[in-house]
Design a protein that fits this description.
The complex is a heterotetramer, with 2 copies of chain A and 2 copies of chain B.
Chain A lengths: L5 H8 L12 E7 L4 E10 L2 E10 L2 H14 L4 H5 L3 H7 L8 H22 L19
Antiparallel strand pairs in A: 1-2, 2-3
Chain B lengths: L3 E2 L10 H7 L15 H20 L7 E4 L2 H15 L6 E5 L4 H12 L3 E5 L9 H7 L4 E5 L13 H11 L2 E5 L11 H4 L3 E5 L10 E5 L25 H39 L3 E4 L9 E6 L4 H10 L2 E2 L15 H5 L4 H4 L2 E5 L6 H20 L2 H13 L1
Parallel strand pairs in B: 1-11, 3-4, 3-5, 5-6, 6-7
Antiparallel strand pairs in B: 2-8, 7-8, 9-10, 10-12
Helix pairs in contact in B: 1-8, 2-8, 3-4, 5-6, 8-12, 9-12
The chains are: A alpha+beta, B alpha/beta.
The structure holds pyridoxal-5'-phosphate (2 copies).
The site of one pyridoxal-5'-phosphate (PLP) has 15 residues of chain B, from helix 3.
Chain lengths: 142, 395, 395, 142
């Protein structure tokens, strides 16, 4: 395995936005303890803008760092903007991820999309969210 | 900051006396043992002296020791070499499911070339049942390979009971003693085995020097062919300094093994108790008694292994998550799967293996540092959140 | 007494800078590269740095270098691994008759498992004819292995001409560059090969560290299985200090190879001329021009090699009789047989290989000491007696 | 290969009885240059006693040492006594030989027998000499 970037280690050692949001507007939980990662992402939405995002994650260093980064990235974004946040953007913002850990960024994107999907459902609106392909764990992109 | 190395099952530092023994053989006495002149002789004599010491550690004759470059090579050599050289007698092999991959992968390769392999399960503490071996034996069985001690969970297998069975039936028996040699007594006569693997870097010897014991008269097919070295059974210019180091490490281990058992088991017990007293929902893996003295393998519910490992690393504490050899792979341990550990908690496993360089203060330090790391990660864990909510709801 | 080591083809002393580079990795930075903590990382980084340097020596990418424990292992890995992984395309292999036994014996083993092998002869100077390679190729041919330079007679083979043919036909080409690497330029692009073996202890690196270059995209079946090391292609805990040493030796060789060629060839020529001027009935083996710069292989009529070697040893001079690897066996060299050396004179062969530690005075010393040894042994030889009587009778 | 004993090295470095005997009473040559050893043994016989023995040998250290030793052993012996000198006796007198070199002692015995055979022939007497089995080169006894 390649080494984690210093940015990954930073977000792992001092993750941003850890915790729950009471009465969140959207919550998404993805992953599986058997596979080694579970992410739960909470969002607070006001006037179509994500005013707060928090996470809880069971997983490796990269899982925690991508959770931290994805919550950072979406805060202050509109729902439409947040929908465009990709796993590649998360990985890039972290200064890259080891190949074998790219699936963690995919999981972070999934957690976000799942929370947004939940937000639409809670609002009673048809969800435009397309979940990424469920290929996370064999993902071997660069 | 204190540094505490608790990863002796991955590798050990070279003992200063071992390095001292090796040093003359790099640039000074650098000869090739195959050469007849004095410079070659000097190297040859050094290798043969190392062979005698290495043999003595496991109670073998010098002529029964073949040097290799690693435990993995010894295991490949044993499994493929014994199977290939004895296939006229039959083509069935028995191994346990908790063997190291350097046994399991060669077994798969042999399956592709016409052998059949039985993979024996273990009980929840990692023990192979000798009765299972007896039941698995067919007329076609030529070879059994069950490890002496498991490198992850430390369980020491009932090798003597198994060898009674194989001897009665005239079947070859190999044991992988890479994890045990140097830490508990290993004797090929007492164990009753026909072949036995061990590796220097696991007991304060150098990397690149390991051995396979093959009982006199047992046929084995060379895997690295084309040289007169190792009695024609393993080609390649001998790694003289490393073999000298292995010999010295063997000599030290033979003299010290009782002390090592006492010293490390007492620290290990202290560590185990200290963690048990401070951390809830923790599982000790492996056999409670028949276990390597320096081994502690623990699974923590709701947290993942790598993140614990990384936080411990920041505190100067080196441990493994799962087995050393698979710690860069994503799969959880096949050993924990075999003993039936819940897959969810298997991912939250730490392997801590102690050594002679660890002090009681080191253990106190780990007992101080690990519980808050586990707690911090649990507070970050959605699985812990769910459990706490369920608990609250039940109240 | 002066000591003159003329056996560099058997092994070389570790260069002081190489040993210096290795020393921190025994007891200090002793980590297992598979481990994720800092101590493991440090070892991993050292191995990858060594891989980059080792790759650079032969013009390869770091990802194309697989570390092994010896030249013999690299050759076994190449021949069996490439044949096994590509057998769906065909089952015919071509090698030369003067290959090292670590190619020839695996070839025999492959023959037993269904491959067919063509063994190409050479001319009297040890050259393989590229036309012979072209003619030997069939639809079923998947692999050609011809050594870069022969370790006994020093002949440098026309690898580029052969690789033109194999590339056109889409056949894999491996070359054993154990004897040449570090002494003449070796570049996988220029040579046009798909795989190439080399070994550290042959060019001032440590024993126990060698490499196999495998071109990106070429499939090879692991021979030591069951670990994630070497990208899953060669299991076994890495011999970190030795690999660091190999990297350093590669770095030195890359910088120095021109100098080594000039220095050793000039001393070798002096030695050759000195002996030719003083000893009758002496045959220089190998190619007069396309030959390793530090190689001198000579056969003396009427005297036997070991007895010359032993008398030279008493004078402090270390040489080989025949190849290093067979010098303890009784058979005369298969290489000399292949180039058509008379069997009677083949037994009177000395292999002298020079190095950077030899001085002009050393060569003068050998030129002084060897002729009287040859003369003394001839006077003891019934073959010489017969020849002299025949000469006298003819007068 | 095991090392040569100091006695072997002594006889190799300073062999006894090297040379020819002019008008020898018996000469025997055995071995083959292709196999790496040729031994020629000369004997001088007076009153049924071997008064002198000399040798010439093409061969390895052990070949020269065994030649030296066998000539030492037979000097002063009667023909009948000489006929009983075995390869094992030669090897033993040298403090043992490496296994792979035992064939040299066999060759020395053969050379002696061949010289004795020649002695009988020259005398015109039927030879009682039995040559040892021609197994020298594969010999692997201890
Ligand atoms: C041409 C050649 N190939 C392979 C080898 C084997 O290399 P090693 O001694 O590293 O096993 C040698 C050894 O001398 C050699 O000369
Ligand atoms: C039980 C067991 N067998 C084999 C091996 C492989 O030994 P080596 O690391 O020397 O290749 C290991 C390595 O940790 C092991 O623990």
């Amino acid at each position: 395995m390649e080494q984690y970037s210093s940015k990954v280690m930073d977000h792992f050692a001092h993750p941003h936005n850890v915790g729950e949001i009471e009465n969140a507007d959207g919550v998404g939980t993805v992953g599986n303890p058997v596979c080694g990662d579970v992410m739960r992402l909470y969002i607070k939405v006001e006037n179509n803008i994500i005013t707060d995002a928090k996470f809880k994650t069971f997983g490796c260093g990269a899982a925690i760092a991508t959770s931290s980064m994805v919550t950072d990235l979406v805060k202050g974004k509109t729902i439409d903007e947040a929908l465009k946040v990709s796993n590649a953007a998360v990985a890039e913002a972290l200064g890259g991820l080891p190949k074998v850990k790219m699936h963690c960024s995919v999981l972070a994107e999934e957690a976000l999309k799942s929370a947004l999907d939940d937000y639409y459902k809670k609002k009673g609106v048809a969800s435009p969210v397309k979940m990424p392909a469920e290929s996370g764990h064999e993902h071997d992109m660069e | 900051m204190r540094t505490v190395y608790l990863d002796h099952a991955a590798t050990t530092p070279v003992h200063p006396k071992v390095l001292e023994a090796m040093l003359p053989y790099f640039s000074g006495k650098f000869g090739n043992p195959s050469n007849l002149h004095d410079i070659g002789r000097e190297a040859k004599n050094a290798v043969e002296e190392a062979r005698a010491k290495t043999a003595a550690l496991v109670g073998a004759a010098p002529g029964e020791i073949y040097f290799t470059s690693s435990g993995a090579e010894s295991n490949n050599f044993a499994l493929k070499g014994l199977a290939q050289a004895n296939s006229q007698k039959g083509k069935h092999i028995i191994v346990s499911q908790i063997e190291h991959f350097s046994i399991l992968h060669p077994a798969k390769t042999l399956e592709k070339s016409g052998f059949t392999v039985t993979y024996l399960p273990t009980d929840k503490e990692g023990l192979v049942n000798p009765d299972d071996v007896a039941k698995a034996i067919t007329k076609d069985t030529i070879l059994v390979s069950v490890m002496h001690a498991n490198n992850e969970i430390g369980t020491i297998e009932p090798i003597e009971a198994i060898s009674k069975i194989t001897r009665e039936k005239g079947i070859l028996f190999h044991t992988d003693a890479v994890a045990s040699t140097g830490w508990i007594p290993v004797n090929v006569e007492t164990l009753g085995v026909d072949a036995l693997s061990f590796s220097g870097h696991q007991f304060y010897g150098p990397k690149g020097a390991a051995a396979l014991f093959v009982r006199k008269g047992v046929r084995i097919k060379p895997q690295i062919e084309g040289g007169i070295q190792e009695d024609g059974r393993r080609a390649g210019t001998e790694n003289v300094p490393a073999l000298v180091g292995l010999g010295k490490a063997a000599e030290l281990a033979a003299a010290e093994v009782g002390n090592r058992m006492r010293y490390t088991s007492q620290l290990r017990d202290k560590l185990q108790k200290g963690l048990q007293d401070r951390i809830e929902d923790m599982v000790i893996n492996g056999h409670p008694v028949s276990r390597l003295p320096h081994n502690l393998n623990v699974s923590f519910w709701y947290v993942e292994g790598e993140s614990m490992l990384l936080f411990l690393n920041m505190e100067g504490i080196s441990v493994s998550s799962g087995s050393a050899c698979t710690s860069r792979s994503l799969k959880s341990s096949h050993v924990l799967t075999c003993i039936g550990t819940d897959a969810a908690v298997a991912n939250g496993t730490l392997l801590m293996t102690l050594g002679m360089g660890n002090s009681a203060e080191d253990i106190d330090y780990v007992i101080e540092k690990l519980p808050p790391i586990v707690q911090r990660l649990r507070e970050m864990s959605p699985l812990y959140e769910d459990m706490m909510k369920k608990k609250a709801a039940a109240r």
